Amino acid sequence: MAKVRTQFARQVEVARHAGFCFGVKRAIRMVGEALASGQGPVASLGPVIHNPQVVRSLEEQGLRRAASIAEVAEGVVVVRSHGAPPHVHAELRERGLAVVDATCPFVKKMHRQARRLFRMGYQVVIVGDRNHSEITSLTEDPSFECLVAAGPADLDGVKLAGRIGLAAQTTQTQENFQAVANRILPNVLELRIFNTICDSTTTRQTEARELASRVEVMVVIGGRNSANTRRLAEICRETGTRTVWVETAGELSPELLGDAERIGLTAGASTPQWIITDVIRRLQSLPAGDLATGHTSPSGEESHTTGGSTEHVRRN
Ligand code: F3S
Questions:
Q1: Measured from the CB, is residue 28 less than 6 Å from ligand 1?
Q2: Cβ of 278: how many Cβ atoms within 10 Å?
Q3: Which ligand 1 atom is at minimum distance from the Cα of 107?
Q4: Rounded to the nearest whole angstrom, what is the distance from the C-alpha of residue 117 to the centroid of ligand 1?
Q5: Cβ atoms of residues 51 and 74 within 8 Å
Q6: What is the residue extent of each domain of the chain?
Q7: Is 309's pLDDT higher than 60?
Q8: 11-19+200-314 is classed in which CATH architecture?
Q9: Ligand 1 neighbourhood includes 48 CB (under 6 angstroms)
Q10: Which residue's CA is the closest to the ligand 1 atom numbered 2?
Q11: 20 CB under 6 A from ligand 1?
Q12: Which ligand 1 atom minimizes the distance to the CA of 198?
């Protein structure tokens, strides 16, 4: 039987740092300036940031998305916030294209530190996702070598000895980085660590963990392709609080929230304020509903059909 409530108001508490970080704001500003500069068509190599709604909005303003440099004949090319390998920068110069380098300075710093470790003779280990563009910007450089580990388990059976240099993708958790360092340390003569996780990431993760631990449902907003949003959702789930990850307000339903009255909200570093505001309004207006039970697969994954797409939520 459906629950009936005459008075129902959800309290939504928003993390102090939610949404755009410094690097994303900077990249969007640089695209805007390039579009206004009159230097010809403006294209980005891949999505400028990992938020489909923001990218669509920039494309409506005139930004084109190119899968490769070969697709760009003239005008301005924007290098996205996660960077690009050196051969891409070289090719852009050779082709005489105007370049707007929107690589986040903290990502650049991570790349610099990792290369420094390599030049100093360390065997370099990077904690991160080997397919993420921040990491491929490094690994596609033939003059650089490293081992990429998503976590300590990736080092099982790997022979590490001598001098190891350790760095991390900027959006990693401090806990995972530490766990990899602990895994390496007993086996090596020397371990040199550059903590390259950016402050925006750590602040958002700390706040999300604290907020999730004292609400009934945690809502995390951000692109499905956003590594830092995925990490925020994982952190919230690890507290044991029901966690719902959405890209937009339209994906929320009473069934996802049940009759929770205290809702926490955070958002990935590439989520714009207008989506956060939309989600808050929708959270406050949705009636109570029966919790969706989902369909639990043998792997322990629960599927929610949300906004036309199916979101897989790993339960811890
Ligand atoms: Fe840069 Fe950190 Fe944002 S690396 S893009 S400031 S999450």
A1: no
A2: 16
A3: 4
A4: 22
A5: no
A6: 11-19+200-314, 22-104, 106-197
A7: no
A8: 3-Layer(aba) Sandwich (3.40)
A9: no
A10: 198
A11: no
A12: 2
Tokens of 18: 């939610």
22-104 has the same fold as 11-19+200-314: no
| pLDDT tens per residue, range 27-77 | 999 999 999 998 899 999 989 999 999 999 999 999 999 988 999 989 999
Contacts of 267 (CB under 8 A, 6+ apart): 15, 18, 19, 220, 221, 222, 229, 232, 275, 276
The finding on whether 170 has its CB within 6 A of some atom of ligand 1 is yes
Q: How much is the pTM? A: 0.85
Number of helical (H) and strand (E) elements in the chain, helices listed first: 10, 15
User: Mean pLDDT score of the chain, rounded to an integer?
Assistant: 89
Count of alpha carbons within 13 angstroms of residue 63, beta-carbon side: 26
Residue with tokens 């009159």: 38
104 lines ligand 1 (CB under 6 A): yes
Question: What CATH class does 106-197 carry?
Answer: alpha beta
Residue corresponding to tokens 């051969």: 87
Give the model confidence (pLDDT) of 118-170 as tens digits: 999 999 999 999 999 999 999 999 999 999 999 999 999 998 878 999 999 99
Does the active-site annotation cover 134? Answer: yes
For the CA of 21, the closest atom of ligand 1 is 3
Question: What CATH architecture applies to the domain 22-104?
Answer: 3-Layer(aba) Sandwich (3.40)
- Dist. CA 267 → ligand 1 center (Å): 13
Instruction: Indicate if the pLDDT at residue 312 is higher than 50.
Output: no
